[in-house]
Amino acid sequence: MEENQTSVTDFILLGFCLDPRIHMFLFGLFSLFYTFILLENGIILGLIALDSRLHTPMYFFLSHLALIDIAYACNTVPQMLVNLLNPAKPISFAGCITQTFLFLSFAHTECLLLVMMSYDWYVAICHPLRYSAIMSWRVCSTLTVTSWACGFLLALVHMSLILRLPFCGPHEINHFFCEILSVLKLACADTRLNLLVIFVACMFIIVGPLCSVLVSYTRILAAILRIQSAEGCRKAFSTCSSHLCVVGLFFGSAIVMYMAPKSRHPEEQQKILFLFYSLFNPMLNPLIYSLRNAEVKGAMRRALYKESHSQLVGHLNHQLM
Question: What is the reported pLDDT for 35?
Fold first, then answer.
């Protein structure tokens, strides 16, 4: 975009229009959530990397989900925390556009990754004898790379359409990060093409994947009902319910934000919904998968046992010396 088209060099993120004392409370609360997000997802990544028993397609996809959750939080939460302490601190135009691009990229990638995870469980439960052949490492790697590539390419389309627009003021974004719809409201030009592309993209990246996930889990539930073993049925239901919780939180928030009539959702309510992407989803995802998964808990116990055993051996060697 040419320089003479854009007189705005930075933006002010208005954040949450609340009392300063509430800002301090939210700063402490969100900082705690942010710490939990990094810690929980970091533990998941560490366990998957170190424990060979978790080197399976399911945990391969789960490791990428943890990466996306960390990326979500690191992209939006630090700026939100800064704004809670100093609401007048601006963000540069380039920084704002970069934040929008990264948020869209990670959101698109997670939509597609959730489809891959549902397909993985469909094959595991409905075609267990052919699972290794269907979900080979080559197939898993191809599906994952495709998800990341499509996510970033689609975000690049949105960015190219934004950068053609002039921004000549005002420069206040009524949000806690540079969300694409909030940024478009500040453009000094017709944004109907941008909004049309966003709607079409939602059909492709939200409605399409959601329908695929629902079809997969419908078949999974039908297969579960045919399981004779009560323990196997319980385990399968437990896993499917945790996946459906993630799907419901993620796709539900996206549909309300981008496909429901905007008049029904005031801007302050939209900010609360976007907290699901920035804080709640990244914090709940590892909890849902790890606390309800015996394999992850077993890997954690083995890791703690190895650590305590190595410390004991080191202590004994030190005493003998």
Answer: 94
Strand-pair partners of 227: none
Of 61, 59, 67, 60, nearest to 40 by C-alpha is: 67
d(CA 299, CA 59): 12
Question: Do strands 10-13 and 90-92 pair parallel, antiparallel, or not at all (unpaired)?
Answer: antiparallel
Give Cα 192 to chain centroid, integer Å.
28
Q: In this structure, are residues 157 and 135 in contact, taking their beta carbons and an 8 Å threshold? A: no
Q: Which neighbouring-strand residues pair with 90?
A: 12
| Residue in the block written with tokens 């100093």 | 86
- The structure tokens listed for 250 are 């993620």
168 token code pair: 């000549």
Answer whether 220's CB lies under 8 Å from 125's CB: yes
* Model pLDDT for residues 124-151, shown as the tens digit of each residue: 888 888 998 999 999 999 999 999 999 9
Contact call for residues 235 and 192 (beta carbons, < 8 A): no
Contact between 179 and 158 under an 8 Å Cβ cutoff? The reply is: no
Question: Cβ(224)–Cβ(237) under 8 Å?
Answer: yes
Of the candidates 220, 243, 224, 13, which has an alpha carbon nearest to the alpha carbon of residue 122?
Answer: 220
Percent residues over pLDDT 90 in the chain? 27
Question: Rounded distance, CA 87 to CA 187, Å?
Answer: 22
User: pTM for the whole thing?
Assistant: 0.85
